[in-house]
Amino acid sequence: MAETIKLAGADGFEFAAYHEPAFTPRKGGVIVIQEIFGLDKYVRADVERWAKMGYEAIAPSLYDRREPGFTAGHDPDGLKAGIAHAMATPLDQALGDIAAARDFLKQHGGKVCVVGYCYGGSLAWLAAAKVEGIAAASSYYGSLVKANAALTPACPVIVHLGRTDPGIAADEVAAEVAQHNPDVPVYIYEAAGHGFNNESPERYNAEAADLARHRTLELFDKA
């Protein structure tokens, strides 16, 4: 049964995390890293999806130091608030909270993988290089991947991008990753835009989401 628990960051601050045990025999753990909108219903639905696929899943609430329990709608006001929280949250602090989620899952044994979307996609890429003990990472449409493409991942990573994403030039990201990390697959989904895994009507692309999830599950199962 899903529950909200508390985890302690490296600075001792206790933040919330949405947690769900695996529905089927447990394969390991997955950290689900939020979009800029907080732990909204879409993130919680993704936690449930991973639990149904056999992974104990947890989503850390990365803005709790600024606004505990923050969630925002996919509208101009929500976008503005989410961006403000993301920009004001130090990356090292967010990575520390991801490490706390890793430690929680490690207590139950097995591998720990990371999947992140939007803001979380950037953090998934960074976590693959900077957070020890991650077995595999899947980065969805992270805006910071290009600027950090020279980082060396310490685990297998895949990257997912939407061709029609107005804010991320997919070919440029793919070229930058290929230059520095040629073994990292970058998948570009031709009919998809930003946020295509999110089931909100204005963003969701079922075909791209299903294929990206299949590729991610395959990566995690092999890790």
**What's the total count of β strands?**
8
**What distance lies between the first and last C-alpha atoms, to the nearest angstrom?**
26 Å
* CATH C-level class: Alpha Beta
CATH fold-level topology: Rossmann fold
Rg over CA atoms, rounded to whole Å, is 16 Å
Mean pLDDT across the residues is: 96
Q: What structural category characterises the helix and strand content? A: alpha/beta
Outline the fold blueprint.
Blueprint: E1 3-8, E2 14-20, E3 28-33, H1 41-52, E4 55-60, H2 76-88, H3 91-106, E5 112-117, H4 119-130, E6 136-140, E7 157-162, H5 170-180, E8 186-189, H6 206-222
Parallel strand pairs: 3-4, 3-5, 5-6, 6-7, 7-8
Antiparallel strand pairs: 1-2, 2-4
Helix pairs in contact: 3-4
Looking at this protein, list some descriptive labels.
6 helices, eight-stranded mixed β-sheet, 223 residues
Question: What can you tell me about this protein's structure?
Answer:
- The structure is a single chain.
- This protein has one domain: Rossmann fold (3-Layer(aba) Sandwich), CATH 3.40.50.1820.
- About 35% of the residues lie in helices and about 20% in strands.
- The chain contains six helices and eight strands; from the N terminus they run βββαβααβαββαβα.
- It has helices at about 40-50, 75-90, 90-105, 120-130, 170-180, 205-220, and strands spanning about 5-10, 15-20, 30-35, 55-60, 110-115, 135-140, 155-160, 185-190.
- The protein has an eight-stranded mixed sheet, with helices on both faces.
- Helix 3 (about 90-105) packs across helix 4 (about 120-130).
